[in-house]
Structure formats: structure tokens, C-alpha cells
Amino acid sequence: MTANTATTRRLLRRETRATRRGPAIAIALVLTALLLLLLAGAVGWTLDEGFRTQLRAWFAPVAAIAQPMPALLTAGAVLIALALLLLGAAVLPGRRARRTRLDVRAALVIDDGVLADAIADGVARRLGVPRGQTSVTVGRRTVLIRVTPTSGVPVDPDAAEDAAARVLDEAGFRLSPRVQVAREGVIA
């Protein structure tokens, strides 16, 4: 693994990025349908006088709305915002809910759900709380840990945060833990 780190890093990056194939195909199909509709309209406009009058009648209310300048500016701003959104979706990388870690001997790809379960198990074990009373949500840079204590058995929030930090350190991921201990416990 160490001799081929550039290839390994590229493979790990590929495993954490999502493909943009689905949105690209959907946008291409919608644009193709719109262009075919415009082509059919242009052919009908040039060949049929009745079609022209019917289109003028259909678009007369639209032309009346588009006469004032603020309506045109608003429509233009909306179209520009939509174009920027689509451009961002095409250019920016998608992110899968996975984390990677490169070690001397191995390259690891870990799903965020698996990491959340491991953190919940470790925190519950260290605090002495049943596993069902600990839930974890893994974000991009933070981990939110919710602990519901057993009724009558208090849980120290500092001890919970220390346990979460130790579990994350053992797992080898640099995430900042946030711990929320419920005020009311559950009956065991």
C-alpha cells in the first residue's frame, strides 16, 4: 500500500464521491424534450397559419404579464439562479456517507452508519448505559451523541463527552463530538 499511495488515495477518493450520472441523465432528457417541442413549434409556425394564430392566442396573457420591466427582471433572476444551481450540481463533487483512512498496511472505507454504530456501542459500554439508549448521528465534521439515562441513574455529560472522544480517537477519525444527555431518563 505504501509504495502506491497516489493510486490508493485516488481509489479512496473515488469511493467517497457520488456519481452525477442520475441528475445528468434527467436534465438531458428534459432538455431534449424541450428542444424537440421547440422544433415542432418552429415547424408548425412556419408551415401553418392557423397554428400561428392559436399560439398567439395562448401566449397573449403571458405577453401581458411580461410587459412590465420588474416581471422580466424577476424571471431573468430566477432563470439565472436555476442555471447556477444546475451548473453547481454538474461541477461540484457529490459526497457519499463514507469515511476513509489510509494506514501503513491497509486502506479503509467506512460507512457513516457503521461508524455511528461503533461510536454508540463504545459510548454505551463506557458509560454503563444500555445500547438502546444511545443514538449517534455522524455529520461531515461533527458527531452528535444523544444519551438517555436510566431513570434514577445520572449520566455525567463530561464523562460522556470524554468517552465519545476516546472512541473516536481509537477509531482514528478526527471528528468533534457533541454530547446531549436527556434530562429525563427511561424506566429500565
- In sequence order, what are the helices and strands, one letter per element? HEHHHEEEHEEHE
Sketch the major β-sheet. 3 strands, mixed
Outline the low-pLDDT stretches: none
Global shape: elongated
Strand order of the largest sheet: 5-6-7
Distance between the termini: 48 Å
Rounded mean pLDDT score: 82
Helical content (DSSP H or I, runs of 4+):
55-70%
* Global structural class: alpha+beta
Number of separate domains: 2
Instruction: Output the number of helix runs.
Output: 6
As a percent range, the share of strand residues is 15-25%
Quantity of strands, as a count: 7
Radius of gyration: 28 Å
Could you characterize the architecture of this molecule?
This protein is an alpha+beta fold. The chain has two domains: 2-95, no CATH class; 98-181, 2-Layer Sandwich (GMP Synthetase, Chain A, domain 3). Helix content is 59%, strand content 16%. The chain contains six helices and seven strands. The chain has a three-stranded mixed β-sheet with strand order 5-6-7, covered by helices on one side. A two-stranded antiparallel ribbon has the order 1-2. A hairpin with a 4-residue loop joins strand 3 (98-102) and strand 4 (107-111). Helix 5 packs across helix 6. It is elongated. The mean pLDDT is 82.
Keywords:
two-stranded antiparallel sheet; 2 domains; alpha+beta; elongated; 3-stranded mixed β-sheet; single chain; 188 residues; 59% helix; GMP Synthetase, Chain A, domain 3
